């Protein structure tokens, strides 16, 4: 930063300018999909500074708390969240100089926790295997902390009227202007219900008597679709799309605003989001796929031309190691490779497809170690120049070699690798695998002389989990 652009000390109590970039997001038309009779537009909420639509509600909820005196200078902002709301609050409240304390369920990814910590938020981990009413449930933990910490403000996005108000006052009017006052339907998802309630109220005002349809796109497993269709509250299932879908009706969610609903499963959601990136270059999160798939279904059912809007609620960055990663997709059962009915089905990374990280016998031990760290594995097959698998090297082999003399990191891999390989043919049995694992090894699958890939304990566990009967899979909660 140049001297002239550095803020003088006297301006330190000014709010950082980044907050003025929240909202006013672009709107683009979808041109590469079959939208039937409709024109479909996307509001790019992924372009908010914190990467999601939740920046808007973070700003609105913090400003409302300041205005009514619930949040004073030096105060602490507390929220139970693992998702985008946490990022938005960490950004907004952090920029305004408040302490930010987030209660995060323990199933959330390290990336998300690291992200809010990097923004300066403090994190308390709570249990994700308990439900509301349990003292260790993340929202109860947050509420209790708010009672204990003087000067704290519990945001509670699920019951905070400033959440829908943000959409009623900003997102809705922006869409209305960008669409030149010509909108027939808006497709939304529900996490806290803020988007639905805020947009629904706004569009009911500009075109009363449900002149603009509010269409819900809900993940299969969430209870909201069924509630809209039948008025029944059913048992929830589980879904992998993040940020939308619920197992209860949030206080601020006015479900009576919904005029039509679609249920979209994870497979269709992920496929739609990936296709959106390929075809239109728009990098959205998993819920973007749900909304797009719902909007396309709605569009294709229409018999008259309509102008339809949906959202790209958050950026795809957070999903690079999930929905955008083919190995993760296969491991979770969202991409199906044609099964061979043998051990080769358990190989997550196939050598022939260039998916296996390997080292050469002449590479240094340091190279092997760095490669293990970078790809988060604890062993590597050693493959010679002709593509033959001639050994395996793991962390213990490295330790034996370097623990007395770290300069040995410069020695070649061939001096430390194990060349007594535990190879199995593809038609071996799972019991054979267990034998290999019992001897502390990983299995190397070879067909004749061809190296197919490795099978680790973790590969076997993933395979077994994937083949667990659906009926015995416990539902998982969604955390927004
Ligand atoms: C990732 C994500 N978070 C949050 C929301 C909005 O949820 P709500 O305003 O209901 O909390 C959406 C909506 O589509 C979403 O996709």
Task: Please provide a written account of the structure.
The chain has 480 residues and is an alpha/beta fold. Helices cover 33% and strands 15% of the residues. The chain is built from 14 helices and 15 strands. The protein has helices at 54-67, 84-95, 110-118, 138-148, 162-178, 194-206, 224-230, 266-280, 286-301, 326-331, 365-375, 395-402, 430-438, 457-466, and strands at 27-29, 39-43, 76-80, 99-105, 122-126, 152-154, 185-188, 213-219, 260-264, 307-311, 379-383, 389-394, 423-424, 443-447, 450-455. The strands form four sheets. Strands 1-2-10-7-8-9 form a six-stranded mixed sheet, with helices on both faces. The chain has a four-stranded parallel sheet with strand order 5-4-3-6, with helices on both faces. Strand 7 (185-188), helix 6 and strand 8 form a beta-alpha-beta unit. Helix 1 packs across helix 2 and helix 1 (54-67) crosses helix 5 (162-178). The chain is globular. The two termini are 36 Å apart. The structure holds pyridoxal-5'-phosphate (PLP).
Annotate the secondary structure layout.
Blueprint: E1 27-29, E2 39-43, H1 54-67, E3 76-80, H2 84-95, E4 99-105, H3 110-118, E5 122-126, H4 138-148, E6 152-154, H5 162-178, E7 185-188, H6 194-206, E8 213-219, H7 224-230, E9 260-264, H8 266-280, H9 286-301, E10 307-311, H10 326-331, H11 365-375, E11 379-383, E12 389-394, H12 395-402, E13 423-424, H13 430-438, E14 443-447, E15 450-455, H14 457-466
Parallel strand pairs: 2-10, 3-4, 3-6, 4-5, 7-8, 7-10, 8-9, 13-14
Antiparallel strand pairs: 1-2, 11-12, 14-15
């Amino acid at each position: 930063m140049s001297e002239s652009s550095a803020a003088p000390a006297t301006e330190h109590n000014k709010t950082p300018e980044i907050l003025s970039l929240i909202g006013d997001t672009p709107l683009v038309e979808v041109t590469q999909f079959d939208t039937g009779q409709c024109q479909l537009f996307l509001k790019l909420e992924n372009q908010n500074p914190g990467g999601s639509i939740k920046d808007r509600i973070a700003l609105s909820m913090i400003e409302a708390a300041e205005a009514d005196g619930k949040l004073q200078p030096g105060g602490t902002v507390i929220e139970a969240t693992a998702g985008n709301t946490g990022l938005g609050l960490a950004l907004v409240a952090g920029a305004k100089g408040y302490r930010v304390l987030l209660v995060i369920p323990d199933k959330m990814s390290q990336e998300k926790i690291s992200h809010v910590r990097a923004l300066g938020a403090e994190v308390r981990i709570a249990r994700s295997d308990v439900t509301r009413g349990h003292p260790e449930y993340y929202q109860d933990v947050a509420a209790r902390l708010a009672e204990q910490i003087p000067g704290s403000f519990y945001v509670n996005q699920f019951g905070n009227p400033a959440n829908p108000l943000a959409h009623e006052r900003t997102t809705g009017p922006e869409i209305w202007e960008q669409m030149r006052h010509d909108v027939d339907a808006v497709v939304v998802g529900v996490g806290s219900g803020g988007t639905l309630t805020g947009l629904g109220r706004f569009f009911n005002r500009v075109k009363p008597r449900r002149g603009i349809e509010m269409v819900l796109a809900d993940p299969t497993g969430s209870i909201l679709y069924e509630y809209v269709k039948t008025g029944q509250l059913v048992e929830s299932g589980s879904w992998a799309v993040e940020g939308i879908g619920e197992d209860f009706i949030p206080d601020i969610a006015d479900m009576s605003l919904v005029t039509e609903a679609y249920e979209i499963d994870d497979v269709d959601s992920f496929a739609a989001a990936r296709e959106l990136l390929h075809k239109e270059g728009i990098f959205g999160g998993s819920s973007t796929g749900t909304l797009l798939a719902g909007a396309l279904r709605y569009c294709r059912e229409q018999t008259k031309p309509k102008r339809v809007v949906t959202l790209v609620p958050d950026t795809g960055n957070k999903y690079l190691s999930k929905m955008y990663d083919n190995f993760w997709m296969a491991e979770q059962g969202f991409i199906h490779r044609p099964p061979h009915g043998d051990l080769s089905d358990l190989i997550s990374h196939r050598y022939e497809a260039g998916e296996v990280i390997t080292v050469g016998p002449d590479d240094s031990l340091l190279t092997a170690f760095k490669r293990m760290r970078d790809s988060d594995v604890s062993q590597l097959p050693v493959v010679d120049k002709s593509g033959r698998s001639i050994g395996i090297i793991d962390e213990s082999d490295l330790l034996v070699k370097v623990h007395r003399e770290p300069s040995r990191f410069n020695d070649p891999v061939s001096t430390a690798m194990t060349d007594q390989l535990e190879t199995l043919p593809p038609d071996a049995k799972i019991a054979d695998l267990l034998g290999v694992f019992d001897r502390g090894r990983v299995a190397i699958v070879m067909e004749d002389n061809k190296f197919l890939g490795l099978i680790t304990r973790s590969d076997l566990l993933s395979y077994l989990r994937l083949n667990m009967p659906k009926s015995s899979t416990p539902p998982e909660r969604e955390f927004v």
